[in-house]
Amino acid sequence: MKKRALISVSNKQNIETFAKGLIEHGYEIISTGGTLKAIQNAGIDAKAVEEITGFPEVLDGRVKTLHPFIHGGLLANREDVHHMEQLNEHAITPIDMVVVNLYPFKQTLEKEGVTEAEIVENIDIGGPTMLRAAAKNFAHVTVVVDPNDYDSILDNLQNASLDEAKRKQLAAKVFRHTANYDAMIANYFSEESFPEVLTTTYEKVQTLRYGENPHQSAAFYRDARSIAGGLATAKQLHGKELSYNNIQDANAALEIIADYDEPTAVAVKHMNPCGIGVGNTIETAFSRAYDADPISIFGGIVVCNREINLATAEQLSNIFLEIVIAPQFTEDALKQLTKKKNIRLLELDMANDRTSKQKITSVVGGILVQDYDTGKVGEADLQFATNRKPTAKELENLLFAWKAVKHVKSNAIVLAKDNQTIGVGAGQMNRVGAAKIAMEQAGEKTKGAVMASDAFFPMPDTVEAAAKFGITAIIQPGGSKRDQDSIDVCNEYGIAMVFTGMRHFKH
User: Fold this and answer.
1) Which in 72, 95, 168, 385 has the greatest CB count within 10 A?
2) Burial, 459: exposed, middle or buried (Cβ in 10 Å; 0-12, 13-18, 19+)?
């Protein structure tokens, strides 16, 4: 008796070649709908499923393979005498291979102007059922879900090496595929922010050389949904593959720049901003980001939210950078930057709406899930706590610094002046320590600068240090039982202080 293969695919890539190969290896082909037409049009002998089931496709194709003649042939244990007797009793022929890929649910979901009726119609029922049945019975049935596996399967058949171990590998791939498919459907229907079961799914982008350190293995996965402005959607124009640490730092830079609408450049080192600059042009913005900390930017990552032109490229090429990311590069800028062999250049649409997206952090045995910190503060949200209110220029710099401090690891202090950061204190165990790091980095620039703190001052020591360095205005959440102590010190030194009523811890 010939072996039997059931082929029903939405993605018809190379299916005719594969079907011919199966015929050459003694398989009989049964198929459905458009797949059957494609195979027959290629001159390949194939039977319609309804010839096997004796029942036509109904409900506009919603029901065509859901039949005992199909699933009995897939699920029968060939080593179970009782199973085989039942097949004979009901004239069911075993099916030895299933080649199925599913309705394009994801692609339909991403179509512009798609209706819910179209989305629902692209939820496959028969396909996953056949795949799961065949994968469950991998000991006897070969199941193929990925066109990229066609050549290796034909090679295995040629070499008589399509053994149970190989079939088990293919079955595992099927269950990953159907889990991914079902997760996307579940996410589409789910309206809860934090459902009782969280179904997430990611697709592999690349295996990385190593993780944070050379002794750690790592890989990069992207969200199965298309996330605008996400690093996984970037187009790499030049340079070697990104490393684990590159990806971490680049993502941190993208999260920062998403908060800025005006021409902005962000320099990141070890997931903290070492310089943020805003200007009327991207050249000015980068110049300010560089001047913020010309030492730490060495070997860092720069993201600009405007096209990189030649003038900016010439500035960038004067220092060693790991990565430059921008929406576009002019031809002259690319020519200039690609003179440096090791720099990685990425082109990325900076549109980045995170209002409905969540941040996932792994812990041992679980994950933490929270909304992205999209909290923003404007002048109307501020509480003016001190006798002196900030000047218009101070207020502009305070709001600039507040945007920046949100992206610095806690405890965090940011100093700013003239639309640029001038000192950053990150990840310290106490707040006054973070402030001292920021002020020592800024040096003489602290005179007339402003300070932002990601959380309130539990005591006035940070304000006292700021006064000694010439800080003229401070922005902080407020809310400490000892707020008045800090207010009193500010009043003593003529420092303006404003409260935001919002904290920006980042761990």
Assistant:
1) 95
2) middle
Q: Would residue 270 show up in a list of annotated catalytic residues for this protein?
A: yes
Tell me: do 297 and 342 sit in the same domain. Answer: yes
Q: What is the mean pLDDT of the chain?
A: 91
Same domain, 22 and 171: yes
Residues 42 and 103 reside in one and the same domain: yes
248-254 average pLDDT score: 94
Confidence of residue 438 (pLDDT cuts 50, 70, 90): very high
Collapsed DSSP state (helix, strand, coil) of residue 450: strand
The span from the CA of 465 to the CA of 137, in Å, is 71
For residue 353, pLDDT beyond 60 = no
CATH number at 337 reads 3.40.140.20
How many Å is the maximal CA-CA distance in the chain? 97
pLDDT tens for 447-468 read 999 999 999 999 999 999 999 9
Q: Is residue 404 part of a domain?
A: yes
* Burial category of 99 from C-beta neighbours within 10 Å (exposed 0-12, middle 13-18, buried 19 and up): buried
CA neighbor of 325 nearest in space, from 340, 335, 337: 337
Q: Pairing mode, if any, of strands 47-48 and 27-31?
A: parallel
Which residue range(s) make up the domain with 142?
Answer: 3-189
The CATH number of residue 131's host domain is 3.40.50.1380
Residue among 386, 425, 391 nearest 405 (CA): 425
Is residue 120 one of the residues assigned to a domain?
yes
More confident residue, 275 or 33: 275
Backbone angles phi, psi at 328, to 5 degrees: -155, 160
Distance CA 454, CA 468 (A): 21
User: Angle formed by the axes of helices 461-468 and 483-493, to 10°?
Assistant: 20
Cβ neighbours of residue 353 closer than 8 Å, sequence gap 6 or more: 228, 229
What pLDDT sits at residue 64? 72
Residue 236 sits at φ, ψ, to 5 deg, of -85, 125
- Please provide residue 486's backbone torsions phi and psi, each rounded to the nearest 5 degrees: -70, -35
pLDDT at 356 over 60: no
**φ and ψ of 399, to 5 deg:** -70, -35
Give the model's confidence band at 192: pLDDT under 50 very low, under 70 low, under 90 confident, else very high: confident
**Structural domain count, the chain:** 3
What pLDDT is stored for residue 354 in this prediction?
52
159 in a structural domain = yes
Among 270, 357, 389, 393, the active-site one is 270
Q: Is residue 39 helix, strand or coil? A: helix
pLDDT for res 352: 59
Catalytic residue (choose from 136, 340, 357, 393): 136
